[in-house]
From TrEMBL:
This is Esterase. Pfam families: Esterase. Residues 1-23 form the signal peptide. The keyword Signal applies. It comes from Larkinella knui. Keywords: Signal. It comes from the Bacteria. The keyword Signal applies. InterPro entries: AB_hydrolase_fold, Esterase-like, Ig-like_fold, Ig_E-set, Mycobacterial_A85_antigen.
Length: 372
């Protein structure tokens, strides 16, 4: 099952990463502006109103400069050298809305863009660029009450070290000393780490805005490293869930319940993950059905009624993906689960692939369904 899911994920990633139509593109609008993810004072990279990206790199002694976007750096935009030593180029076509990783290849070497901020993905710190989305309001930074994202270090006997997690607590948590909260354990994908959901995913801003609009019940989110990057891409069939399952279920959850005001039972504990984090969610929730009361796979495969048979029944099963992935499979899986008596919900993010706007939208749809 895991090998099949991974094959589908790789196919979706290849289809959705920096693949431009060979059809004639409209004229490129010359209304480029600096990306919102640029380092302070940096003019490039830039994005225009159509979603094209333009790059400008100073490398006077280089012979070749290329920009590679997406997981693993497949595809790319070749830059042209000017007399001033700057290399400039524009993507062949518009990129999907939302966040994209990228890096530079300069004379065969891999480098980050000095004009852009860096984000951990593809098992390294990559440059990031944001294509403004038409629906970006739901994850925008607004003048609303904000929760807190704090780093915690929790002891792990199984790995003989202290491990790190980030914990989102909703607005008012520090003041309401007697109130207890449900918890969502939210996992990143392969190549990423526990910083991804806050930095690339804006999970805290999504929560703040939903809470300000009165659309969700407040809950805590816990994000930790899924131990996925020890396995190289292409060798994921060798990944063992056991070490991470031990860290999560036997070490992290007891630590969170002891140190935060949680409602420490199955019905008030959920697990979700994107991509490989979804596969971790799938496996752990089947292995430990008495620990979590709600499951969510975001571009991370599906459940079927047979594998859930004779398990503790989840209150919610949420399945999602981008419209450029495998939406029919996700919708059919949810329909099959509903027919078998499960509370299953599917969501498809329009015009996105295996990328963070898919997962931002998925969290935005999932959160109001949790802990009702």
């Amino acid at each position: 099952m895991m090998i099949r899911i991974l094959t589908l994920l790789l196919a979706a990633t290849l289809a959705g990463t920096n693949c431009f139509s060979q059809a004639t593109q409209p004229a490129v609008a010359e209304d480029f502006k600096p990306s919102t993810l640029n380092q302070p004072g940096q003019e490039y990279p830039q994005v225009n109103s159509q979603g094209y990206a333009r790059f400008r790199i100073k490398a006077p002694k280089a012979d070749s400069v290329r920009v590679s976007l997406g997981l693993g750096g497949r595809g790319g935009t070749r830059l042209t050298k000017g007399d001033d030593g700057f290399w400039t180029g524009t993507t062949e076509g518009p990129l999907d809305e939302g966040f994209h990783y990228y890096h530079l290849t300069v004379d065969g070497g891999t480098f980050n863009d000095p004009g852009a901020l860096n984000y951990y993905g593809s098992v390294r710190w990559e440059s990031g660029i944001e294509i403004p989305a038409h629906d970006q309001d739901f994850y925008a930074l607004k003048d609303v009450p904000h929760g807190n994202v704090q780093q915690i270090l929790f002891p792990s006997k199984s790995t003989s070290t202290s491990r790190r997690a980030f914990v989102y607590t909703p607005p008012g948590y520090e003041k309401e000393k007697s109130k207890k909260y449900p918890v969502l354990y939210l996992q990143h994908g392969w190549g990423e780490d526990e910083t991804a959901w806050s930095n690339q995913g804006h999970a805290n801003l999504i929560m703040d805005n939903l809470l300000a609009d009165g659309k969700i019940k407040p809950f805590i989110i816990v994000m930790t490293y899924g131990m996925t990057n020890e396995v190289k891409w292409g060798r994921m069939k060798d990944f063992s869930i056991v070490p991470f399952q031990t860290v999560l279920v036997d070490e992290l959850i007891p630590y969170v319940d002891a140190n935060f005001r949680t409602v420490a039972n199955k019905d008030n504990r959920a697990m979700a993950g994107l991509s490989m984090g979804g596969m971790e969610t799938h496996t752990i929730t089947l292995n430990k059905p008495d620990v979590f009361g709600a499951y969510a796979l975001l571009s991370g495969g599906v459940y079927n009624p047979e594998e859930l048979k004779d398990k503790s029944k989840a209150k919610l099963i949420f399945l999602s993906c981008g419209s450029k992935e495998n939406p029919d499979r996700v919708k059919k899986a949810a329909a099959d689960l509903k027919a078998a008596g499960y509370n299953a919900v599917s969501f498809v993010s329009e015009k996105t692939a295996h990328e963070f706007l898919t997962w931002r939208r998925s969290l935005h749809e999932l959160a109001p369904l949790l802990f009702k």
